[in-house]
Design brief:
- With 475 residues, the protein is α/β, with parallel strands linked by helices.
- It has helices at residues 2-13, 17-35, 38-46, 51-78, 83-101, 128-151, 167-185, 208-211, 217-230, 252-264, 312-315, 318-321, 357-360, 384-399, 445-449, 452-471, and strands at 155-156, 162-163, 191-203, 235-237, 268-278, 281-290, 296-298, 339-341, 344-350, 369-374, 403-407, 413-415, 421-424, 431-441.
- It is 45% helix and 17% strand.
- The strands form three sheets. A six-stranded mixed beta sheet has the order 7-6-5-4-3-14. A six-stranded mixed beta sheet has the order 8-9-10-11-12-13, with helices on one face.
- α6 crosses α14.
- The longest helix is centred in the first third of the chain and has 28 residues, at 51-78.
Length: 475
């Protein structure tokens, strides 16, 4: 938030739209080169892309993302406004809209949306069940603008004239905003349904460079069978593609042994494995085994250049540099029913899918529990796994439900409906995490409205000042 306030201060002193765009681009380049540096790790360390090419690809990707804050800078500089409406309405709304735009532009990459920085401890996180993480982005950007207005005695106004922003209104609005967030955090948007459920989250800690080697498959299967036999929960969850074989290649007796303990107690096990359904049709899937009928969830939102190749005639050459097994998955259906297992209805999402809050709520309010499975071994020991955990915390907060995460190397964790981490397993260890969760029913406002509420609010915050500026009489 203080970083945003600094950016807004720089924009207040730039004399033209070109300079504002360059300032926003520089800010964005620093933000994304630092915050998504794990892309280099994925490309070079595990994708086997040569270091110079991996570095160039990472830089170009970050430069593309930096165009979003550059666009915000350019747009706000093109509209002649007094400081107060500029930094209390226009700029915060444009910033939140840029975060939202990244969630769908070129299949979407909303990683590092400003709202995540406030989850779960900040009072501003209280806006997440109401307006989603982009609503928290709006609140954070508005706070940054109000801080600037409260701290600055004189800011450039229309036609370059210096105007004195009124500090007390800015301070009052800032206090009201934070108090509103705090008050919203006290609201229980959903309610518990039924008794507690014991879950076991298995973390195999299979290194990425060995995961898909045929000679290592038996050792991987043995690891997960041992962990499953030791598990205490009625619901046992394995990570994404935990079983490194197509479903039809896994011996039926192994699957039976994997689920035997939970089946005997009326429970279920969710196992990640790819499914081959046609000559060039295969899915990244989670399959249920146990007392309930077998059900399948198939990943819908795939990772570009990791799970599918966009515009293959143009970019197919990239896959020649990357050694990524199963690099062209098929998409599952956009809307899939929650898995009815262990007396719960579990909304499953696989890895990257939990970055998209509006897609998670497609299974709500029917689902009582959220489950994210991932293989964050692709990120190595970078910032990525910790960022991914915070993203999952935002999903729990938005939906008012427990979220359980089973990952290959970490961070395996249990998150409560307020976005707090209740338990987590040590990273890069072969272990299981045992915890108790409760299913929840009901719907937060975000579950009902999705992102449209914050988008419409931002549109009003932009169009209002713009309309007023056009109606201002000219000398």
């Amino acid at each position: 938030m203080l970083g945003l306030a600094g950016l807004f201060w720089l924009w207040s002193r730039v004399e033209n739209s070109r300079g504002a765009a360059l300032t926003g681009f520089a800010f964005g380049l620093g933000l994304f080169c630092t915050g998504t540096s794990w892309i280099y790790v994925s490309l070079h360390d595990f994708g086997a892309m040569p270091a110079p090419l991996a570095g160039l690809a990472t830089f170009l990707f970050c430069a593309l993302l930096a165009l979003f804050p550059a666009t915000v800078g350019w747009l706000q500089a093109r509209i002649p406004l007094a400081p107060f409406p500029r930094f209390a309405l226009l700029v915060p709304a444009l910033w939140a809209l840029s975060d939202w735009s990244r969630s769908w532009f070129l299949t979407g990459f909303p990683w590092l949306a400003t709202g995540y920085s406030q989850v779960p401890a900040s009072p501003l996180a209280g806006f997440a069940p109401l307006l989603g993480v982009f609503g928290v982005s709006l609140a954070a950007a508005l706070s940054a603008g109000l801080l600037l207005l409260a701290a600055e005695r004189r800011l450039p106004g229309p036609a370059g004239c210096a105007t004195a922003p009124r500090a007390w209104p800015a301070i009052g609005l800032l206090g009201a905003l934070w108090f509103a967030g705090f008050a919203l955090k006290q609201v229980d948007w959903t309610e518990p349904a039924g008794g507690s459920l014991k879950v076991s989250l298995l973390q195999g800690n299979i290194t990425q460079d060995l995961k898909w080697r045929p000679e290592k498959a038996l050792a991987t299967l043995d690891t997960y069978l041992r962990l499953a036999r030791e598990a205490e929960g009625r619901l046992v969850i394995l990570p994404e593609t935990a079983l490194p074989l197509f479903r039809h290649e896994v011996p039926p007796e192994y699957l039976e042994a994997l689920a035997r303990r939970v089946k005997g107690t009326g429970g279920d096990l969710l196992a990640g494995m790819p499914e081959l359904t046609g000559p060039r049709e295969y899915y990244n899937s989670m399959v249920s085994l146990g007392a309930s009928p077998t059900q399948v969830y198939r990943k819908h939102h795939l990772v570009p250049f990791g799970e599918f190749v966009p515009l293959r005639p143009l970019f197919g050459w990239v896959m020649n540099w990357l050694q990524i097994p199963l690099g062209d998955f098929s998409r599952g259906a956009p809307t899939q029913a929650p898995l009815a297992v262990a007396d719960q209805k579990v909304a499953v999402n696989i890895c990257y899918e939990d970055v998209f809050g509006e897609e998670i709520i497609r299974q709500l309010p029917e689902a009582t529990l959220l489950a994210n499975v991932s293989n964050d071994a692709w990120f190595g020991r970078s910032l990525g796994p910790q960022q991914h955990l915070q993203i999952a915390q935002a999903r729990a907060l938005e939906t008012g439900r427990h979220l359980v995460r089973a990952t290959n190397t970490g961070v395996t964790a249990v998150i409560d409906p307020r976005g707090r981490v209740l338990a987590r397993a040590p990273e890069f260890t072969t272990t299981r995490l045992e915890a108790e969760v409760t299913g929840h029913t009901g719907a937060t406002p975000y579950v009902r409205w999705g992102n449209w509420a914050v988008v419409l609010a931002c549109a009003a915050m932009v169009l209002g000042p713009v309309a007023a500026a056009r109606q201002r009489p000219t000398a």
